[in-house]
Amino acid sequence: MSWAFLRDLLSGVNKYSTGIGRIWVAVVFLFRLLVYIVAAENIWKYEHDEFECNIKQPGCENVCFDHFFPVSHIRLWALQLIMVSTPSLLVVFHVAYRKNREKHLSQKLYRSPGEIDGGLLWTYLTSLVLKTAIEIVFLVLFYKLYNGFEVPRLVKCDIRPCPNTVDCFISKPTEKMIFLYFLLGTSCLCIALNLSEFSYLIFK
C-alpha cells in the first residue's frame, strides 16, 4: 500500500489548520504513520507463522489464531489511520469549492484563502468531531476485540477441532505490547488535540 496520498492529504489540510491542528498533523505523520511503516508493520508481519500451539492437530492452530486475533492489529491500525484522516477531505473539498466559485465569478469572495471563517469554520469543526469520534470508536474496537489492551504470552484454546485445551504462544509479546501502548497513547494524544482545537475555535 502507498501512503503518499495520505501524506499529501495531511500536508494540504495543514495550511488551513490552527497551531494545534498543525501539531495534530505532525503527530499523525511522525508518531503514527512513520512508526507504523518503519517499525510496527514489521513486528506483526509474520504473526500467523510465529503463532505456535503445543499440538499438531490439523486446523487447531488456525482456529485458535482466528479466535484470539479476529482482525490483525496491523490491518486495524492501517484502517484507523485512513479513517481518521478521511474527515480532512471535507476541508479540502470545501476549499476547492471556494476556489472554483471565485474562479467562476471572476472576483474575490473571501478575505483570505488560508483563513478559517464562515462555512469553512463549520466544515472544519465537523471534521474535528468526526476525527474524534472515529478515534474513540477504534479504541473501543481494540478493547473489545482483544479483551483489553494486552498481548498475552500464553493463550489457552479449546475450540474444535482441537481435541482438548491446548497452549498457544504469541511471538515477541513484550515488543508488541510496547508498540501497542505507544500507538494507543498517540491515539489518545490526537483525541486531546482535536478537543483542544475544537474548544479553541469555539471560544475564539
Automatic annotation (TrEMBL):
Residue span(s) of domain Connexin cysteine-rich: 134-201
Domain Connexin N-terminal: residue ranges: 42-75
Membrane topology value: Multi-pass membrane protein
Pfam families (UniProt xref): Connexin (PF00029)
Keyword list, A-Z: Cell junction, Cell membrane, Gap junction, Membrane, Transmembrane, Transmembrane helix
Alphabetized SMART domains for the sequence: CNX, Connexin_CCC
Cell membrane in keyword set: yes
Subunit (UniProt): A connexon is composed of a hexamer of connexins.
Protein name in the entry: Gap junction protein
Source organism of this protein record: Colius striatus (Speckled mousebird)
Organism taxonomic ancestry: Eukaryota, Metazoa, Chordata, Craniata, Vertebrata
